[in-house]
């Protein structure tokens, strides 16, 4: 039985990697993925310091996706001379040749960056003629390079969190088939984060702090940008000075849920749309009955019950870490307690 | 291995997975085991992903000759697939039926040309075989038992369910149209030559799901469905509702979807065989209260159950429903009927079926969009 199990596991792995093959390398013009992250030359100096090379722009988002408390370093490489058109609502339409680079890490001590960090993985989204491709590199234990990974992995990680307590948790590196579970719009792979509203905030560049949109406009990347005051700006989920409870909750739901829960995403069948642009209260979950939640309903009747987070399915699924219940379905093994608290407070206030 | 046009042969044996298996963007692929109960994919120790097997954005996919078990969420979900065939596939949650089981066994959603043939579904906490928001569907020669709903067709167009056996579920076979969904309107559904019996299993669905309000003892339930023909079925020993025809209002849930049509219309129930033992209907839940305190049938429960909530827009000047919107009930063996007049708080409960003695044209399943 054991050997059979092995055979089928292999078959299915090959199956996974073949679908990976056909998604990623079947086109002749596509460049073959490199085995090591260092081969791309995205960084100068020691690669573990993650200092971007020339033409690689670091950026951050106002409200990022929760990934088991991992911190993220983000970079984008836009082919020289190319530009990105301003778009007030959607993720920016980056030109072919763009690479989006995202490194996940845990500080050893969240209270003190000087104590160093553990780099976990670096994910690439590469825009080729045929569409966006995902690749994934997992950092070695020596932290000297990251190596191409197809099949995914689970690692244990320990760190000291903001409360001074030591935490140990599982960290899951997705397999490449899982990427499209989230990075999916009308069944095409797409980036999720970098929209104008997410980029409209300050970033500490080497030469000083500046609004990212202004920086992108000055460097000639962002075309047809209106005045900054007319650009939408997403609230920072954990900074009350950046938006009301509702604005910050909607920002959190937008980035954590709306990649699937939008009218063109994989969760469209549920009728629940948590995008920042949704104004229909039922579609947003208010007094909305679940469609195919199964035990994800947690014996609750509606997605959001005004004033009552403990009767709201939304909260139940955000709190759970059971794979048959939790939302998002992939990408986390822990509960985002602070995010849950925010959305709880919002529902309570309604 | 999985290139377009390929066949994936799986060996005999039990294979355990801790993750979901997924496949997407594929055409003309067959995933084939060595047989039901011979090739078993078990997700018992699943730690990641909600489904067992997930197929999306694909064309002409066949899954056959295997058993899938015990996923945390749904067992097989296929979304946005044109041409999906399940043949001789068993989906089951082993052990006692439990609300901790996943929701759906076979779960094609937003698919076209769905064929489910010779399959078995056991133990789903929602529906064993569930086709949602899809078009052109045939479910045949299949069995469903120990699920909350055996077989459910929801917001789907042009479906036929025939030669199936649904037994010992809470509800045997459901045809539902629900609000707030992307595919708004289902309909044109034929249900025939099925054996639907002993669906008296206590409801174990987690509350909040629509099926949690299905009373135990339900044979066939049509909820807000339009253009449905139910014929030549054997509907035996379902203690509460042999065949129910109800509007969405019976769920007592709010309707916020302006495009949603909550009434059942054009329902044709003919040439079925009914039979039930002389027992009381369910005493559980809201429906149980209704049976006990409003309907008071005792053990003499009529086979065909109509809520009597009508859309006044379907009435002509004389107050009669226009023919093409009618509920027609004719020529069933052991036919008995009740209109519970739910609209007026059960004031005029009537067992007189004369008003519903009519017949409608047989449903044609050829859609132009095939």
Strand content of chain A: 15-25%
Tell me, rounded to a whole number, the average pLDDT of chain B.
Answer: 94
Helix content of chain B: under 10%
Largest sheet of chain A: 6 strands, antiparallel
Helix/strand layout:
The complex is a heterodimer of chains A (350) and B (370).
Chain A: H1 2-24, E1 43-44, E2 51-52, E3 56-59, E4 71-77, E5 84-85, E6 99-107, E7 117-128, E8 131-139, E9 146-148, E10 153-160, E11 166-173, H2 176-182, E12 184-185, E13 188-189, H3 196-199, E14 202-205, E15 208-211, H4 212-218, E16 222-223, H5 245-257, H6 313-319, H7 337-349
Parallel strand pairs in A: 5-16
Antiparallel strand pairs in A: 1-2, 3-4, 4-6, 6-7, 7-8, 8-9, 10-11, 12-13, 14-15
Helix pairs in contact in A: 5-7
Chain B: E1 7-9, E2 13-16, E3 21-24, E4 27-32, E5 39-42, E6 53-69, E7 76-92, E8 104-109, E9 112-117, E10 120-122, E11 127-132, E12 135-140, E13 143-145, E14 149-154, E15 157-162, E16 165-167, E17 171-176, E18 187-192, E19 195-197, E20 218-223, E21 226-231, E22 234-236, E23 241-246, E24 265-270, E25 273-275, H1 285-295, E26 304-306, E27 327-330, E28 337-339
Parallel strand pairs in B: 1-4, 2-5, 3-6, 4-6, 5-6, 6-7, 7-8, 7-9, 7-10, 8-11, 9-12, 10-13, 11-14, 12-15, 13-16, 14-17, 15-18, 16-19, 17-20, 18-21, 19-22, 20-23, 21-24, 22-25, 23-26, 24-27, 26-28
């Amino acid at each position: 039985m054991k050997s059979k199990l092995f055979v089928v596991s292999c078959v299915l792995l090959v199956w996974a990697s073949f679908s990976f093959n056909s998604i990623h390398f079947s086109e002749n013009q596509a460049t073959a993925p490199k085995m090591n992250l260092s081969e791309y030359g995205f960084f100068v100096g020691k690669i573990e310091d993650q200092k971007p090379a020339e033409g690689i722009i670091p950026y951050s988002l106002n409200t990022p996706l929760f990934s088991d408390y991992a911190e993220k370093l983000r970079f984008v490489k836009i082919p020289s001379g190319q530009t990105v058109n301003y778009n007030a609502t959607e993720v920016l339409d980056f030109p072919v040749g763009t690479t989006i680079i995202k490194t996940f890490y845990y500080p050893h001590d969240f209270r003190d960056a000087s104590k160093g960090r553990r780099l976990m993985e670096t994910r690439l989204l590469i825009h080729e003629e045929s569409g966006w491709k995902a690749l994934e590199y997992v950092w070695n234990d020596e932290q000297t390079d990251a190596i191409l990974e197809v099949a995914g992995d689970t690692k244990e990680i320990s760190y000291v969190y903001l409360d001074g307590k030591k935490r140990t948790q599982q960290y899951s590196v997705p397999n490449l088939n899982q990427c499209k579970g989230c990075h999916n719009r009308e069944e095409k792979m797409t980036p999720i984060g970098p929209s104008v509203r997410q980029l409209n905030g300050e970033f500490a560049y080497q030469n000083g702090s500046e609004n990212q949109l202004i920086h992108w406009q000055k460097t000639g990347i962002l075309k047809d940008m209106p005045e900054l005051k007319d650009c939408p700006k997403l609230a920072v989920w954990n900074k009350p000075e950046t938006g009301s409870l509702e604005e910050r909750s909607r920002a959190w739901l937008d980035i954590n849920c709306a990649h699937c829960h939008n009218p063109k995403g994989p969760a469209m069948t549920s009728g629940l749309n948590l995008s920042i642009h949704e104004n229909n209260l039922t579609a947003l979950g208010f007094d909305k009955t679940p469609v195919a939640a199964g035990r994800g309903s947690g014996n609750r009747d509606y997605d959001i019950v005004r004033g009552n987070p403990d009767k709201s399915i939304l909260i139940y699924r955000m709190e759970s870490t059971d794979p048959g219940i939790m939302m998002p379905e992939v990408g986390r093994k822990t509960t985002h307690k602070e995010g849950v608290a925010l959305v709880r407070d919002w529902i309570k206030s309604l | 291995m999985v290139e377009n046009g390929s066949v994936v042969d799986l060996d005999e044996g039990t294979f355990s997975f801790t993750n979901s298996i997924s496949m997407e963007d594929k055409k003309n692929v067959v995933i084939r085991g060595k047989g039901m109960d011979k090739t078993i994919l078990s997700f018992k120790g699943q730690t990641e992903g909600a489904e067992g097997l997930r197929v999306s954005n694909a064309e002409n996919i066949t899954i056959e000759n295997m058993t899938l078990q015990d996923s945390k969420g749904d067992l097989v979900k296929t979304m946005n697939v044109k041409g999906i065939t399940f043949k001789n596939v068993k989906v089951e949650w082993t052990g006692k039926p439990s609300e901790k089981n996943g929701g759906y066994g076979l779960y094609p959603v937003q698919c076209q040309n769905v064929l489910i043939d010779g399959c078995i579904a056991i133990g789903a906490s929602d529906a064993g075989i569930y086709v949602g928001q899809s078009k052109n569907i045939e479910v045949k020669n299949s069995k469903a038992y120990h699920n909350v709903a055996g077989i459910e067709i929801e917001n789907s167009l042009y479906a036929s369910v025939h030669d199936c056996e649904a037994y010992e579920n809470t509800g045997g076979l459901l045809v539902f149209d629900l609000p707030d969904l992307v595919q708004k309107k289902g309909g044109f559904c034929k249900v025939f030559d099925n054996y639907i019996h002993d669906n008296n299993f206590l409801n174990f669905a987690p509350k909040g799901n629509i099926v949690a309000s299905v009373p135990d003892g339900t044979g066939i339930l049509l909820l807000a469905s339009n253009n449905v023909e139910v014929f030549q079925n054997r509907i035996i020993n379902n203690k509460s509702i042999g065949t129910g025809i109800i509007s969405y209002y019976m769920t007592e849930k709010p309707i916020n979807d302006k495009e949603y049509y909550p009434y059942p219309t054009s329902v044709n129930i003919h040439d079925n065989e009914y039979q039930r033992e002389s027992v009381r209907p369910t005493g559980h839940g809201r429906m149980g209260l209704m049976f006990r305190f409003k309907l008071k049938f005792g053990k003499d429960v009529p086979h065909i159950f109509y809520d009597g909530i009508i859309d006044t827009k379907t009435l002509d000047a004389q107050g009669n429903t226009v023919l093409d919107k009618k509920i027609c009930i004719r020529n069933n063996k052991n036919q008995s009927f009740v209109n519970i007049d739910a609209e007026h708080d059960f004031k005029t409960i009537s067992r007189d079926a004369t008003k519903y003695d009519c017949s409608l044209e047989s449903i044609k399943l050829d859609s132009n969009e095939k």
